[in-house]
Amino acid sequence: MGRLFLMALALCLVLNSGYAVSGASDSLPVTHIDIFTTEKGASGYKLTRLKTLVDAPIHVHHVDAIKNFEANMSKGLKFNGKPTNKQVSSLAKELNNKMASKKFAPERERLQKGVLAFEKAVQYNLTQVPAVVFNKKYIVYGERPLNALKIFKSKVRG
User: Fold this and answer.
1) Among residues 7, 29, 121, 150, which one has the fewest Cβ atoms lying within 10 Å of its Cβ?
2) Cα–Cα distance, 11 to 4 (Å, whole number)
3) What domains does the chain contain, in order, with CATH numbers?
4) What pLDDT, on a 0 to 100 scale, did the predictor assign at position 2?
5) Per-residue pLDDT tens digits for 53-102
6) Model pTM greater than 0.85?
7) What does the mean pLDDT of the chain come to?
């Protein structure tokens, strides 16, 4: 009877332990994750599983948000040759009105997040994307978040 109780207790501990479920016995816990990718690349990430494996904040940063914003803003702009001052002034007024509208609020927010993502990427000295930064210090390049977590755990263990 005692042996059965101990086996049941051990099974409960394994099932309720994030480390046991993920198959890791880390010497360094994950306290923070920053994921740097493109807007298109992020659409393929399923972070649900990652969130079950780590008890840490996970932030996804789109490093191409500024470029995408500029492309969106310049849609339909066509000038034959060099634009005149009047054309530039008219365009500036049109863009300012567009950016100030309530309808444009989501685009403004994407731009602001894009600027912050770019600043953070520079702060980490990232050289490529995708990049996953663990604990604001350890970088894994070229991998999806779950695989990056496996690589990070294997490196800090060994």
Assistant:
1) 7
2) 11
3) 20-157 (3.40.30)
4) 45
5) 999 999 999 999 989 888 887 777 777 778 888 888 888 888 888 778 88
6) no
7) 79
**Positive or negative: CA dihedral 6, 7, 12, 15:** positive
Q: Report the distance separating Cα 29 and Cα 25, nearest Å.
A: 9
Rounded Cα distance between 83 and 86, Å, is 8
Q: Residue 39, exposed/middle/buried by CB under 10 A (0-12, 13-18, 19+)?
A: middle
CB of 25 closer than 8 Å to CB of 129: no
126-147 burial, b for 16+ CB within 10 Å, e for fewer?
Answer: beebbbbbbeeeebbeeebbbe
Partners of 134 in the β-ladder: 33, 138
Distance CA 156, CA 56 (A): 17
> What amino acid is encoded at 47 in this protein?
L
Q: Specify the pLDDT at position 94.
A: 82
- Give the C-alpha distances (Å, rounded to integers) separating 20 from 5, 27, 46, 82, 110: 20, 13, 21, 65, 38
